[in-house]
Amino acid sequence: MQGRLTPGIDVEQDVDSGREVVILGERGAGHRHRETVGLTRRHHVDMAQGKVFDAQPVHMVIDRGKKGEERSFFVLTRPIGPPDVNILVHIRSCVGDSPECSGEWSVLRGDPKTLVHAYGASGKGEAGFWDDDLVVLTPGDAVIVHDAGSGQWTLEYDKPGTEPLVRPHDHSSTHEH
Asked: Which pTM does this prediction carry?
């Protein structure tokens, strides 16, 4: 199976809160490696078939009282204002549900911004063998996704208003670390 690009970002109901969220990372017992990204209540995101197709990430910071601690997280909201040239993508470096899943991604060019990072286990009870991230790509950004199951593939976002391109990675290209 080769890397693939599917429209929309999957939304599920969180068993703890009962709210619709994007779930990233390990979904096994204890959810130790899981992160969730909520959908705002005020500016509801349009969804269809359990997916979000157009959303704007918003960084939230909540003060937790007298100790001066803050909690920082992202939520997804309906886009407000003029259209943005950036796109939000969910990069999961484990294709399929194989117990031997492993993978990561790296920057080929540009400056992709990781908003939320989660990871998953290899299926042997070991953590951190695949990445599961929400990333903002700007025009000109490209990443390489390394997946033990499907090899290496490139995700490129070249021009505003166009779909990103997914193709097998050309090993003659150089990439940043």
From this structure: 0.81
